Automatic annotation (TrEMBL):
CDD domains noted in UniProt: PRAI
Chain segments annotated as coiled-coil in the UniProt record: none
Organism from which the protein derives: Sphingobium tyrosinilyticum
Reactions catalysed, as given in the entry: N-(5-phospho-beta-D-ribosyl)anthranilate = 1-(2-carboxyphenylamino)-1-deoxy-D-ribulose 5-phosphate
Protein name: N-(5'-phosphoribosyl)anthranilate isomerase
């Protein structure tokens, strides 16, 4: 069995970055979106990513970013991927990938089977799809709200790209989520927090332990 990939998202302090590395997370996520309680500026992101070894992915999480923002983050030389959580079209995703020469992940907001099917449009544009729960209309944030979707919606859908499961995962349900979906990669943010935007070292360690097959 290939190793499960685990991304701890919304990291903003050196101690929680360290915890994620000690827990054998394969990817670390840094949110660059001012409306989020997990937002970090470009210079913070650079500093947080500095001690991370090359084999661990460092992902910037963005919402409909401008090219100016993408250039600012690219200049940190700290990133291995952009993760897009807005309304970016397949053409926009492909353009970002080509211009900045960095892998691009696209979050797909899921509530229905049709939402899952819509991900096919990103074949050839994105490098990875991240299936997340659709947030309510008018919500301030497009993700990181602890919402989950019906995981059985992913059954039987041919997914031609590498993919990741996100949305409402936590210590108590991550093993079930993996069993139901067969996800090769999982992503957690609010599920390892003690308060919005405040990651818990203990919860990060416990989540990664719960996710790994015995």
């Amino acid at each position: 069995m290939s190793r499960l990939a685990i991304k701890i998202c919304g990291l903003s302090t050196p101690d929680t970055v360290g915890a994620a590395m000690r827990a054998d997370a394969t990817h670390l996520g840094f949110v660059h979106f001012p409306k989020s309680p997990r937002h970090v500026e470009a210079d913070q992101l650079r500093a947080l990513a500095a001690p991370v070894p090359a084999h661990i992915g460092r992902v910037a999480v963005l919402v409909d970013p401008t090219d100016e923002t993408l250039a600012l983050l690219t200049a940190t030389n700290a990133l291995t991927a952009f993760q897009l959580h807005g309304k970016e079209s397949p053409a926009r995703v492909a353009a970002i990938r080509q211009r900045f020469n960095i892998p691009v992940w696209k979050a797909i907001s899921v509530k229905t089977r049709a939402d899952v099917e819509s991900a096919k449009a990103y074949t050839g544009a994105a490098d990875l799809l991240l299936f997340d729960a659709k947030t309510p209309e008018g919500a301030a944030l497009p993700g990181g709200m602890g919402l989950r979707f019906d995981w059985t919606l992913l059954r039987g859908v041919p997914i031609s790209l590498p993919w990741c499961l996100s949305g409402g995962l936590g210590i108590d349900n991550v093993a079930e989520a993996i069993r139901i979906t067969g996800a090769p990669m999982i992503d957690v943010s609010s599920g390892v927090e003690s308060a919005p935007g405040i990651k818990s070292v203990d919860k990060i360690m416990a989540f990664c332990k719960a996710a790994q097959p015995s």
